Structures
1.
Amino acid sequence: MANEIYLSLVSPVCNEEPSLKELYAKIKKALGAIDKKSEIIFVDDGSSDNSFRLLRELAANDDGVKIVRFIRNYGQTAALAAGFDLAQGEVIIQMDADLQDDPEDIPRFLEKINEGYDLVVGWRKNRQDRYLTKTLPSKIANAIISRITKVKLHDYGSPMKAYRSGILKNISLYGEMHRFIPAYMAWHGAKIIEIEATHHARQFGQTKYTLWKTFKVILDVITVKFLLNYINRPMHFFGGAGFFALAASFLTLAAALILKFGYQFNLNRNPLLLISVFLAIVGVMFILLGLLAEILVRVYFAAQNKQSYIVKEKINL
Ligand code: UDP
Ligand code: MG
């Protein structure tokens, strides 16, 4: 048992050459203080500097360092997904490679996991980033995401998080969805807690994200909301919209008929008739879309061999 890996540290790396050595030393120090076996997984997300060479050197001297190198840059979500897939630990900790987070926080995250939480989210309370282009937009985005997903967190984008690996491994990450992992995990019933995390200003290199990111995040939240609420029953979403359009169509038609028979207002001169026809078509389309979505969802679950549920424990099986 003692030989099984307990903790996997996953860090996405994209052109972070200047910080890697120090990062490694700090992580090593923090992990050394835990008397359980751990591994460090660096995912080189198509770096164009010397990051990979440096990582390879680290791995040559330490077989607890594992490296995945992408053929090109796929983005932070893909990098994290690769790391999570390969992680063997019971607990997975994610942190950035730019030393903005502090490996010294690791024990505090583990403490919460040991208390029984499935996800510990770092909150960069004293965030050391540009206020106007990063901290403020992020505050707004966090408020919106918290409201819409009903999972209230101060810092969805926090780079430092600890997970119990079971639920995490059941979540497929696409696009730039890593920020929404807490919402997905909550939906799966995870116990989540937020703790304050240290945050340093970026010392080396530069940020890979701009203000535009915040807008993309807000678009993503619509997708996430849909996926979380309707992935198992898309017909309820599209069908609902369809019925609404059909009802509106009947009302408009009724109004047009009342105008004709009550007030001698000819149907062929009444735009309400056209609107009614239009709404009827839209309504039928929505319902057909819902059917298509139902078929797609079945294909999705079958093709990926995915269950629509996660089992927590089995006894005598
Ligand atoms: N990163 C990555 N691929 C990308 C962009 C970023 O692997 O396409 C990594 C990057 O090396 C860093 C982390 O993701 O370890 C967060 O990036 P960054 O520090 O630029 O974001 P910020 O902290 O400024 O939001
Ligand atoms: Mg950073």
2.
Amino acid sequence: MNTIQEILLTEEQISTRVQELGAQISADYQGKDLVLVGILKGAICFFSDLIRKVSIPVNVDFMAVSSYGSSYQTSGAVRILKDLDLPIEGRHVLIVEDIVDTGLTLSYLKKNLLSRNPASLKVAALLDKPERRQVDEHADYLGFTIPDEFVVGYGIDYAEQYRSLPYVAILSPSAYLGS
Ligand code: 5GP
């Protein structure tokens, strides 16, 4: 059974956009103490490609939060599974996230990190699905706006599968509806 319905973003498209975002971030944060916070696990590919396109010195750290688990619908409940190792008070923080969908995860993360008094807090997201937004959240640095489809690849999983695909693809509904 072919579980990939369509390739939405090719390796080349992603690489070009990530390079542009890296250049923009490097210019905007020149001379600033920047901590890039990758959100595990979905942002792993975006994060590792992006940091290599940022030409200024940065610190990196990670958080893991629960989102979809192994089902394909968001619960709205967010739980921290792994917290930051580094202190962020007085530092410029950039959250690096895979997808902004309903916006609930981002809303929670921002509230949580803002309570630690960073100098600034912004968001870089690879993908935005604005059709499903429930709260007024957005990425300050955005890779691509995509339609309301369930996507996998380039770090993004379905039930822990597909993360290693080099592209972003729409998953065939038969993969999660079990037909
Ligand atoms: P939100 O809280 O904005 O609804 O959800 C954000 C999280 O939901 C993302 O970080 C991602 O883990 C997950 N998510 C949203 N859309 C998709 C999708 O199309 N595919 C997968 N695999 N996860 C998604």
